[in-house]
Amino acid sequence: MLGRVREELGFLRGNLLVLMASYMVFGFTSGLFSPFRSPYIRELGASPLVLGLMTSAGYVILALVRIPGAFIADRYGRWKVIVVFTFGAALSYAFYVFAWDWRVILVAVVVSSLSHIYQPALEAIEADSLPPGRRGLGYSLIWVMPGVPAFLGPVASGYLVERYGLVPGMRVVYAVVLVCVLAVAGIRWRYLEETAGEEEELGRRELVASFRESVWSIREAWRGMDREIRYVTLVYLLMSLEFPLFQTFYSLYAYDVVGVTGLEWGLISTIGSVALILVGYPAGKIVDRIGRRRSMLLAYLLSTPTLLGFMAARGFTQMAVVNVVFQVSTAFFFPALNALRADMVPREKRGRIMGLMGTMRSIAMVPAATVFGYLYELNRAYPYMIGVAIEVVTVTIILGLVSDPETSEE
């Protein structure tokens, strides 16, 4: 039994092992701050609409920087951009530690979004390092394994918030996050290896020129997409419209409507992380066995009723159950979607095409975050009603237009 597991996980070495280690640190830090980020910013003076606008501003910047980021990943290599801008991402958390007003958090959002120019390179190095026959399992582990340390975070931050108050407790949380992300930057600098082949030198002048050239290359990447990849991109965009619901307003709804305390919300997040860990490994194997398309449909079969249950949930127990089912749905959807992208996109085009998909995703989230903030102020359930409608449309598209490729790209 142990030998079989070792054989199945034999691809976890080199860059994948380094990335997995860094993702697990990020998982812990995300578990610390994510459940209380929106309430913290609201406590610093931001309304739900301002929260939505801040989120939209971050997506605008992210969309812009992904354009040269995708080009740089293919032409100048993955390693440099990942290492340099991971240090930049760490810097953004210093603003959270010392923020006295929501406008300081806006600066942090800008710095963090600019630093995520490395995302296309990170996505490309993941796809480069995963063997085709193990992509479902590989992406499942990438999605799930960060939850192993993550389940400790919400309880710890919930305790700090309950004992010291929301703002002082979150300052301590973000100080810990800052140290952890600096450690991740060091790990990537020391152990990550280049996968793009021969790379060119990138100076200041080349960086400016690359933005102009990359806009053209992204345009060409869109023209070079097969019809099937465009359908998957459409699913990716519709999924992205929902992202602000969970990134920005999920915790606010839990506080404002469901009626949980800080410690209860931390426990709910921890229980969800444990469920994700338990389901993640078998879910990844199921994605490889039954296919990407069926796995995505299975995910929506779970998540759409979950949104309806979320709107009706009251109290700790109901919210915990809803969150567990939602986490299980993500254990199928994201590995299936990422594996399908990797199966369809040739290695030499991955940086640009995945960068294009990421850019379009960020653009889609810009109006969504602001609209959801406005709707939340009108009625806290309205954003989630829209979410249900988006999921129904997405399922229809998957059923009618999306299919698994006959052969997978290397």
Please outline the helices and strands.
Layout: H1 2-8, H2 15-33, H3 37-43, H4 48-75, H5 79-98, H6 102-115, H7 119-129, H8 135-144, H9 147-150, H10 152-164, H11 166-191, H12 204-223, H13 227-247, H14 250-258, H15 262-290, H16 292-312, H17 315-344, H18 350-378, H19 382-401
Helix pairs in contact: 2-10, 2-11, 4-6, 4-7, 4-12, 4-18, 5-6, 5-11, 7-18, 8-15, 8-17, 10-11, 10-15, 12-18, 13-17, 13-18, 13-19, 15-16, 15-17, 16-17, 16-19
How much β-strand is present in the residues?
under 5%
CATH topology: Growth Hormone, Chain: A
CATH second-level architecture? Up-down Bundle
Characterize the overall form: globular
Question: What share of residues is helical?
Answer: over 70%
DSSP summary, beta strand count: 0
Compute the CA-based radius of gyration. 20 Å
Strand count, sense and barrel status of the largest sheet are: none
Query: How many angstroms does the end-to-end distance come to?
Result: 29 Å
